[in-house]
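Anyone up for a design puzzle?
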């Protein structure tokens, strides 16, 4: 059942890749301006000055030589006046024809350049659509593969006779599911570069809380809009999964009541980075100083992977309980 869906996704991606390569090659050729277009762009930069120079040169030469010629061929002032009128009409017609030719030639070149630019823009838009489709296929394949791993670990956990091994496999499947939720959110939102924590983290929190239902324990959240790239969203989701799971499992005694609070805010720094601060706080029994559970080790490793810092200890407000603060640097692009 799982292999079939995976093969379908792989085959769809493979069927699309040759088309993508062909489109990419044609787009590269189409997006390269021709030599003639490059020459026209360079020459047309000075086209108005050339038109003005040609017009002025023609006018000066016409005035100098036409008056000199008329003075030679005419014998009387009346003949000179008639020829001056004819000369003026000829000058107007000639300059109008010259201006029409120059402007028409300039317009034809501009139209050709605009057509080529439009063709390049259309080719680039088509290439962008193909790349988005290819990225969607890759994200879909990753999500399918994670679902396969998730299903295998869950089946192994259900069929395990050893309770400790089953519990470990269940935790592994929960971590895989936290990663899978990122790619599921990416495919749903259509944004293949960033994940909004305001949309992603509440879903993850509900999943973690649903796996460990505890009457009398409430979860309060305050998560503003904070967009993370995928390579930061995955470690951030794993950190939240480990911290929240640890609080629900160890902070409260059996049948006890309490509150787990998860907040997130930004701190603007003076340098090129802004820091996102995620805090998980409970009012339970508190964490042991020598607690080296695997989940917390994973949380520290994920924080280090994104150049962040995770600190876990007593609550900063002096109340009973544990407080975990995850500081994640965000680069300003």
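Challenge accepted. My sequence:
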């Amino acid at each position: 059942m799982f292999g079939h869906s995976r093969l379908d996704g792989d085959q769809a991606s493979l069927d699309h890749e040759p088309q993508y390569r062909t489109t990419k090659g044609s787009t590269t050729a189409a997006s390269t301006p021709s030599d003639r277009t490059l020459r026209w762009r360079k020459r047309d930069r000075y086209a108005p000055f050339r038109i003005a120079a040609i017009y002025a040169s023609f006018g000066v030469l016409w005035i100098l030589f036409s008056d000199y010629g008329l003075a030679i061929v005419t014998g009387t002032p009346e003949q000179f006046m008639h020829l001056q009128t004819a000369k003026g009409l000829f000058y107007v017609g000639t300059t109008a024809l010259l201006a029409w030719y120059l402007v028409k030639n300039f317009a034809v070149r501009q139209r050709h350049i605009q057509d080529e630019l439009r063709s390049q823009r259309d080719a680039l838009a088509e290439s962008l659509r193909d790349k988005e489709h290819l990225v969607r296929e890759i994200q879909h394949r990753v999500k399918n593969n994670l679902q396969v791993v998730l299903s295998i670990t869950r089946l192994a956990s259900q069929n395990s006779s050893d309770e400790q091994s089953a519990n470990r496999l269940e935790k592994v499947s929960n971590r895989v599911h936290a990663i899978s939720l990122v790619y599921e959110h990416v495919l749903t939102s259509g944004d293949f570069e960033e994940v909004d924590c305001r949309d992603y983290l509440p879903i993850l929190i509900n999943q973690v809380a649903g796996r460990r239902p505890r009457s009398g324990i409430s979860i309060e959240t305050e998560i503003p809009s904070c967009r993370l790239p995928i390579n930061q969203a995955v470690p951030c989701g794993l950190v939240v999964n480990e911290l929240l799971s640890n609080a629900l499992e160890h902070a409260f005694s059996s049948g006890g009541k309490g509150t787990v609070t998860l907040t997130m805010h930004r701190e603007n720094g003076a340098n090129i980075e802004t820091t996102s601060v995620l805090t998980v706080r409970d009012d339970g029994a508190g964490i042991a100083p020598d607690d080296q559970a695997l989940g917390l080790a994973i949380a520290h490793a994920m924080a280090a992977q994104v150049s962040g810092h995770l600190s876990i200890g007593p609550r900063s407000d002096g109340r009973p309980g544990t407080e975990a603060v995850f500081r994640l640097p965000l680069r300003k692009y």
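A detail worth pointing out: DSSP finds eight helices and seven strands in the chain.
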